[in-house]
What we know:
Elements lengths: L3 E14 L2 E14 L3 E5 L6 H8 L7 E6 L2 E2 L5 H11 E4 L11 H12 L5 H14 L15 H13 L5 E5 L7 H18 L2 E5 L3 H6 L2 E6 L2 E7 L4
Parallel strand pairs: 3-8, 3-9, 6-7, 7-8
Antiparallel strand pairs: 1-2, 1-4, 4-5, 9-10
Amino acid sequence: MSDIILQVKDLVKYYYDVNKRLDVLNGLNLEVKTGEMLGVSGPSGSGKSTLLHLIGALDKPNSGEIIFNDKNINTFSENASAKWRNKKIGFIFQFYNLLPEFNVLENIFLPSLIYGENVSRKKLEEKAFALLELVHLEHKAKSKPTDLSGGEQQRVAIARALVNDPELILADEPTGSLDKENSDYILNLIMGLNENKKKTFIIVTHNESLAKKLSRWVHLVDGIIREEKIHAGN
Ligand SMILES: Nc1ncnc2c1ncn2[C@@H]1O[C@H](COP(=O)(O)OP(=O)(O)OP(=O)(O)O)[C@@H](O)[C@H]1O
Ligand SMILES: [Mg+2]
């Protein structure tokens, strides 16, 4: 396996807003190494979330390529794309997106049961419970997400993102709606996953203490990468 997990080449994405074309990504290029933690910053509306959606194949670019482990993901069919995403990519968003009618444990394994292939419910349940232990929430397994604090919900969302052992985790403002104490907790959890489990992360964040710990970060302006910083000591 190559040590480059992701290559983004000349990525272009625009939307139509009523009749006007809105150019969001204008030929963006990016390479991410396996095991790297890449931060993405940029002003509101600069296309950070759009970029993560395209990398996770939740949406398609107008042109350009996204190569993941030497495969062009834009050539996948809908079905292949859903399977690939479920297996390879973990998503952590700002607003957790937990299903209110299911308990915490179900929230972690049900999405995989729906889109996954050949994994028994029992196996997934066991995995989900082990992940709840990892985020120190095993005592909340039977609670409904709405009975949890924001920080706890985000920990559940992280556990859910890990259930299929993804190679790449895309995090969009993972500490955005949390107070300092909870942000620090999530931050340590993410750093630990990178260090101990060698997970590759792309993280959109405004959190300065997180940004400082990332090995590299890129700044998006006008739909391209304007600035690229590599921290000394990494
Ligand atoms: N589905 C869509 N249809 C039309 N316009 C969209 C769509 N999704 C995003 N946009 C527009 O594309 C631009 C980039 O949006 P995006 O969400 O990627 O920005 P962002 O950098 O994540 O901003 P923020 O920091 O506020 O989250 C914005 O102007 C947004 O309104
Ligand atoms: Mg965004």
